[in-house]
Amino acid sequence: MRRLAFGASGITRSVAPAIAALQNPNYLKDQAKRHSQKKLTALERVLLFCDENSFRERDALVEHTCTQFGMAHKKTPGDGFLTGTGLVFGRPVYLFSHDFMFMGGSLSASNAAKVVKIMDEAAKVGAPVIGFNDSGGARIQEGVDSLGGYADIFLRNAMFSGVIPQISVIMGPCAGGAVYSPAITDFTFMVEESAHMFVTGPEVVKAVGGKSVTKAELGGAHIHEMKSGVSAGTFANDLVAIAQLRKFLTYLPSSNRDAAPIVPTEDVRERDVDSLNTVVPIDPKEAYDIREVINTVTDLGSFFELQAQFAKNIVCGFARMEGRTVCIIANQPRHNAGALDIDASVKAARVVRFADAFNIPIITFVDVPGFQPGVAQEYGGIIRHGAKLLYAYAEATVPKLTVITRKAYGGAYDVMSSKHLRGDVNYAWPRAEIAVMGAAGAVGLLHRTADAEALKAATEEYERNFCTPLTAARKGFVDAVISPSETRLRLCEDLKRLERKQLANPWRKHGNIPL
For site-directed labelling of 98, which of 256, 292, 452, 511 has its Cα 20 to 30 A away? Predict the structure, then answer.
């Protein structure tokens, strides 16, 4: 038995310690303290994350070389970092785990070199890198050597971006320069209560700005989940985080040269999805939950949502269609009518670019009244940030399937994976409205001086001519107007047909996305 369970007296463990733990005489005492705090040790985290008996530690006997500030007498095998390889559902992974029990898991030149070594090998063989972060930051006693170690890791984060999946799990403190490695990785997850991230801590904030804040208020898991968008998801404790991370990896390919795993399913493409025919309300102003559409169209129970508490007006994540991974991007009418704003644009663009980098097809569900108007949005740079999502969709070469469920207005219609951005298949449901803007707004601009009766007539004419998918379909901007109940079948057929799609962008060193 390899599972851990939190109990009244802490945690029961049935996993064998690694060499570094065996040679630390204080390990059991420190372990008991961690368990009393409802936390796992660095060793327990990697052993639970990996398939049973598959973890192989690397550089277990490495020690730091610092001799200043009495450091010559403060050494432990592994130097506070656990690194190695393992299997997750039979697939190779590379890992590092900070050991907070030795010098607060601080980074030294020696343990940074351990991380760099496994990152380099992971890129060579094409396997994900997962980091369990629980560190007080740079080891002050080593000075610039420690900072250089961070930079060596940052370089690999950047060079291997889009080559292998990189995932960070924040399970304790992560402060100062240490935050930038997780920031560059593809996904950062956090554990409630124990995790916090910030560039400058509460003491510095108070000294500079005079404001007193706690660590949780400044950079706790919920702050990054709901306000900053740094966290892709928050988990209740270490155990939940490890279980969910193992699940999450099943959606991802091992590298950009591999396909994502195919998960056997009995959920056939012909499954009855007639409920979709009534999911969109008759009243165009009435909200509905786009997750009902996502969960009905995709394989049952397969949707793994990312950043669920951030930018709620757009829903992003991964799901499966006939066992194959797909990326899901969907406007959410339940929040702000699904309008695109700064946060929603940045959130979706990041996921679109990841999917494109790792050859994951993108399915987009569109119900968008436009970009969010307002002084705050304009001052905040909605032009620049909105363009990020436009750019991400435009450059993506993976299969792109789009379903307009209701509204597709203005520039947001273009941005949301329209046919004009090389969308492969674009569908619209019968009551979809594809226009520059809604009827009331358009008629108000076109007939400023008209009386009420004339405005009513003009509105009805506009709705007949423009608030319909037929005009776009006649021009080839929509490939077909389909019944909602056909959606799953059609998308499954399209994904199968587009499996061998090949499309290349013009040669360039790299594009200049509006960052």
Answer: 256
